[in-house]
Amino acid sequence: MSSIGYLGPKGSFSEEALQLFLSQPNEWKDECPHPIPFSTIPKLLLACDRHEIDYGFVPLENSTEGQVGATLDTLGQTENIYVFKEFIHPIEQCLLTPQPLELTEIERVYSHQQALGQCRDFLETHLPQADQIVCLSSAEAAQKVSSAHEKWAAIGTHRAAGLYSLHCQMEGIQDAMLNATRFILVSHSLAEMSMESSAEDKTSLLIIAPNIPGSLSQILQEFAIRNINMSRIESRPSKKKLGEYVFYIDIDGYVFSPIIQEALWALREKHVSTKLLGSYPKAVSQISTP
Questions:
Q1: How far is CA 105 from CA 111, 118, 138, 153, 255, in A?
Q2: What is the pLDDT of residues 91-123, one digit of tens each?
Q3: Burial class of residue 29 (count of CB atoms within 10 Å of its CB; 0-12, 13-18, 19+)
Q4: CATH architecture, domain 94-171
Q5: Neighbours of 132 (CB within 10 A)
Q6: Segments making up each domain of the chain, as ranges
């Protein structure tokens, strides 16, 4: 049986999203892969890069808090993993406590930094007295609060309340009601990436722009003059030199289409370093707007 890694432990938003993703009809040709929890995103992606697991399922960006830096940075450091699917999962944050408490009694709030950020207004308005403690995942936060039996709270999934015997004090505490996270499925096999285009494709690239005036503008122009839509651009430190950055770019279209190949060839002629992260069908959002 194949294996798929996710940010655990059980009860995390990554596990919740993974279960929904695996339940999609016709998602797997054969048997569904066996889920394996990891304590951090880098450990998960590096395990996939070393062929210790077959797939990795990780968060890439949130509609409220933006990019997940650990995912982007590790994708940039690995050599043998590719994105070949994406999944958009609505996120409802819950306030979990060991027993019913008045909000004014809560002394600490534990969660992943993304979850704390997604509930920033709620925390500042309703829990200004509580210290905010960052954990590796929302499920780890639930475990910690459950075992401490203190006047502490965790922000996490409703499922985590049942798994760790916690009281769901409040639901839907995220600041944006249409809160969603984009997850990606990666594999160390390029063969997993579709060799055929679909009606709606997306290509993800890592680009290292020369550190000279106008270099990024010239790179973006190669896509613009060919009418290739860029749906996302994120910069991250190169981790090699202060002030040096790499760029993560999503463009509409299939990587082996003639127009995108022409743009990539033009970048090569300009001595721009480009790494293909994946080319895959766009996900259908699971969020219904009012």
A1: 18, 22, 21, 10, 54
A2: 899 999 999 999 999 999 999 998 999 999 999
A3: exposed
A4: 3-Layer(aba) Sandwich (3.40)
A5: 17
A6: 3-90+179-192, 94-171, 201-281
Q: Would you say domain 201-281 falls under CATH 2.60.40.10?
A: no
* CB contact at 8 A, 133 and 140: no
Note the pLDDT of residue 191.
Answer: 58
Confidence of residue 176 (pLDDT cuts 50, 70, 90): confident
Q: Which residue has the tokens 């509930």?
A: 119
Three-state secondary structure readout of the chain = CCEEEEECCCCCHHHHHHHHHHCCCCCCCCCCCEEEEECCHHHHHHHHHCCCCCEEEEEEEECCCEECHHHHHHHHHCCCCEEEEEEEEECCCEEEECCCCCHHHCCEEEEEHHHHHHCHHHHHHHCCCCEEEEECCHHHHHHHHHHHCCCEEEEECHHHHHHCCCEEEEECCCCCCCCEEEEEEEECCHHHCCCCCCCCEEEEEEEECCCCCCHHHHHHHHHHCCCCCEEEEEEEECCCCCCCEEEEEEEECCCCCHHHHHHHHHHHHCCCEEEEEEEEECCCCCCCCC
Q: Is the pLDDT of residue 242 over 80?
A: no
In this predicted model, what pLDDT tens digit does every residue of 45-59 receive, in sequence order? 999 999 999 999 999
Give the Cα separation of 36 and 5 in Å (integer): 5
